[in-house]
Amino acid sequence: MQREKTETLKARYLPLSKVSVPLMRRMYEIYSGYYENVSLEVFCTDMVEKSGVILVMEKATKRVVGFSTMKTLDMNVGGRRAKGVFSGDTIIEEKYWGSRALQVTFFFRMIREKLRHPFRPLFWLLISKGYKTYLLMANNFHTYYPHPDGKNPELARLVDYYCGRLFSDAYCEENKLLDFGEGYTHLKSNVAGITAEMRQKNEKIQFFETCNPTWNRGTELPCIGEINLSLLVSYPFSLWRKQRRKTKTQIAAVACE
What we know:
With about 260 residues, this protein is α+β, with helices and mostly antiparallel strands. The chain has one domain: Aminopeptidase (3-Layer(aba) Sandwich). About 40% of the residues lie in helices and about 25% in strands. The chain is built from eight helices and eleven strands. The protein has a seven-stranded mixed β-sheet with strand order 1-3-4-5-6-11-7, with helices on both faces. The radius of gyration is 18 Å and the shape is globular. The N terminus and C terminus are likely disordered.
């Protein structure tokens, strides 16, 4: 399927108090299009536990085409105080896959959180049903866990901490997975599947499936990435380089037509 131009999108953060009923229904409409075993009641119950949501919209029509829920969490592990920002349900309509509108808005939100407590460690907390969510962290963060090369094992304690606080009934500390049972929400079979070619070409996708072999029935892989000064400085340049490569590819494709 041909993707829409990503510059047609914009994103913004909205606190939970500003989320209207029609907006909640629109978000659920998008979500239910990509996930099995969903209900409006459960979706709304989960939503009210969050701090807010990043909305992704078409610039021209302001139609919501994606979102990511967020929750801030104070953490204290072994006397180490930290702040966590948990990303919950995240989905964008397929024709807009590849857009960075959500990533950019999330980045500026993290700058704001870091400036509020500049000397306190800040972490992105996420749980991943599918490889795409895992790659958002693995492709953009310098310090994260779990890591294909076994790096940053000290972050496992923070994963245990936030999963114990948020998902104590579903978390298995031994295999570092969240299992909410057979009837739990999971990606539809035609969404974000993993092929043999993908496993062979991308070690991070292969690693994700090794860590979460039952992802297709809804088990979640808890992850954590540190948002430090190095990341905040380098991330804009990384986005610029990716956009530059993409523009060159598009120009080359047009020239060949």
